[in-house]
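Side project, low priority. Logging it here so it doesn't get lost.
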Amino acid sequence: MTAATIRRIDEKEGDHEEMLTVPQFAKRVHRNRQTAYAWIRNGKMPAGSVVMVQGHLEVNYTVYRQSIKPVA
């Protein structure tokens, strides 16, 4: 028997919220973990992108990614 992935029909690829731990986020944006924690502590992260989940911080990468402005 093979495993199947079930998705809602109206769900688009990349439509879900991607939650990362702070070290995972730091690795994704090519910074060290201390830098990511400093951004959080100093209020440099976009509103709604950092949440407390069961006693530890997580970054909603979807919100973070949508806040990035392309360089013209």
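Brief comment: The helical segments are 22-28, 33-41, 61-67.
Revisit when time allows.
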